Amino acid sequence: MKRSILRAARVIRSKNSGPFELTLDIMFKNKSYFDLFRRRRLISERKISALYKVPRKDILGIIYFEPALAVKVTIRRMVPSGAPGDSDIYGAQQHAPLLNLKF
Amino acid sequence: MKIHTGEFRILSTSGILGYGFPEESFRRAIRRKPHIIGIDAGSTDPGPYYLGSGKSFTNRLFVKRDLRLILAAATRLGIPVVIGSAGGAGARPHLDWCRDIIYEVARENRLSFKMGVIATDISAGRVLRSLRAGDIQPLPFVPKLTPGAVRECSHIVAQVGVEPIIKALDRGCQIVLCGRCYDPAVFAALPIAMGYDPGLAMHMGKILECAAIAATPGSGADCAMGILNKDSFVLECPNPLRKFTRMSTAAHTLYEKSDPCHLPGPGGTINLENCSFTEVPGGRVEVRGSRFEKTPHYWIKLEGARRIGFRAVSIAGVRDPVMITQIDKILPAVRAQVLKLSHASNSGGRIIFHIYGKDGVMGALEPERRPGAHELGIIIEALGNTQEDADMLCSLTRSTLLHYGYPGRISTAGNLAMLFSPSDIGMDAVYEFTVYHLMKIHDPAGFPLAVERISGGRRLS
After folding, report:
1. Burial level of B103, CB count in 10 A (0-12/13-18/19+)?
2. pLDDT mean over B332-336
3. How far, in Å, CA of B447 to CA of B164, rounded?
4. Are B164 and B120 in contact (CB under 8 A)?
5. Phi and psi at residue B119, in whole multiples of 5°?
6. pTM of the full predicted structure?
7. Residue of chain B whose alpha carbon sits nearest to that of A54
């Protein structure tokens, strides 16, 4: 039985990291969920690539940060912040696809 | 500068100058006798328009309100104030805008101080010389810099480090107003000059630049204090409703950064690999182990924006269920008809539809493809080489869509619920970030510093 990411995460968010990158943070509820996700590599380039329809070369990195019990994924912004066609200048509402993650 | 070894207290009033802060928090913070007040006034987050146009994204009245409280307290206590990224984007017009507000506050309150104003604009000529010398590097996903793109920028600024601020403080400036500036440098400059550990000072600055955003509950419109010691720093919130926790502080280290362990900045990187966050009584957190690692060469980040056209928009809603099911066919057909009629494509014209209720927020990234909403919000975005072209294209698109006859149409009086009269809004120039690159420099303190004396609200020099 797969469970929703919301069982394990207390914060799921997105934001610009400069005008050309979008950075996604998942903060886990406790250390055991953090360890589980890190050990099993549950946030993988393959999953992010499928969720955000980005080629793997546009994924800058997936980094676990223990002090915040968090994993961070940074991807290329399809449209740089504020350029024509952009619809989220701060990149603050691009996290929703992560809510569909199961583990 | 005098070497200081005891506790060094730094007050950050708000996340951005002009976001406001409760007067009660500020009074409590001032009672703690800070050694310096720092305020980060800028960001690239609001997008390229502000750097490109020379305007501020913050509100003048509230920037003045914040400055009135800050300058009155600082002159009374005789402590320095460092303001970084003046006017939001930190180019010359933004610096002048903020400087004028400071003069106005000084005049109205008869304040006396010495002020250092640091300009951090970089000329296109200098960028081009560095480009030719191979001293420019792009950041990830940033297009390669071309000489044409450099020349087209209305402003190019450098995100300077602590060095120009230290120079101004060394010259005895009580108020330091800096153009575009690395956010942590605002808070770290003075303690680094006094001999405190640069890793701790920079990491503390990284947290303080957002003020109480790193506390819980978080707020960009409330004060935070950093207390720097020889081997650690402590964060505290003057507002008793907020506190710093281990988690809120560590989580903030992730904010707006691609790698939480290595935060690159002017001249080096803040390394947090061995950093620890410990809660101490009173809603405070103590941080240890942050290190600053100098890079072999001094690189600074450049930011530049160029104008690429003009924009007009129109806002409308659709409630007709037949139209909603066909929206993916109707809008491209309307776009094609308008572009053909106006020949706008030949002169840089573009029409973009933002459809709220479908994929207005995420565009191509939207995974949800099921039609579900019973109403849609449509923003017509028209771009042209001049405002006139953009206005024309917006008007034509609006009128064509309003009366467009699609197959199966039963609502034949009009397709759009227009939100406003006037229905179309001219939005001025459109800019894009063109320069977002690193440049190698040899003199990190070498930015123009103007020292100005103000006595009883009057400028002496």
Report:
1. middle
2. 98
3. 6
4. yes
5. -95, 130
6. 0.95
7. B365
Instruction: List, as ranges, residues 33-72 from A with C-beta within 8 Å of B.
Output: 51-53, 58, 60-61, 63, 65, 67-70, 72
> Quick count: other Cβ atoms within 10 Å of Cβ A99?
11
Determine the Cα–Cα distance for residues A19 and B319; give it in Å rounded to an integer.
35
Residue whose C-alpha is closest to residue B50's, from A82, A41, A12, A27: A82
Beta bridge partners of B418: B316
Tell if the CB–CB gap between B260 and A70 is shorter than 8 Å. Answer: yes
Residue in chain B nearest A97 by alpha carbon: B367
Q: What is the mean pLDDT of residues B187-196?
A: 97
**Contact call for residues B227 and B11 (beta carbons, < 8 A):** no
Q: How far is B172 from chain A (nearest CA, A)?
A: 34
**CA-to-CA distance for B117 and B179, rounded, in angstroms?**
8
Name every chain B residue with its beta carbon within 8 A of the beta carbon of A90: 45-46
Closest CA to B359 of B381, B328, B338: B328
pLDDT digits (tens, 9 = 90+) for A19-35: 999 999 999 999 999 99
> How close does chain B come to A30, measured CA to CA in Å?
11
Cα–Cα dist A66/B82, whole Å: 33
- Of A6, A14, A8, A12, whose CA–CA distance to A94 is shortest? A14
Instruction: Tell me what pLDDT residue B2 has.
Output: 59
Contact pairs from chain A to chain B, CB under 8 Å:
138
B402/A contact by beta carbon, under 8 A: no
Q: Which residues touch B27 (CB under 8 Å, ≥6 apart)?
A: none
pLDDT in tens, B431-442: 999 999 999 999
Q: Is the CB of residue B115 less than 8 Å from the CB of residue B173?
A: yes
Q: Do A70 and B254 touch (CB under 8 A)?
A: yes
> For the segment B195-250, what is each residue's pLDDT rounded down to a tens digit?
999 999 999 999 999 999 999 999 999 999 999 999 999 999 999 999 999 999 99
Residue B444, SS3? coil
| ipTM of this complex | 0.93
Quick check: B149 contacting A, CB < 8 Å?
Answer: no
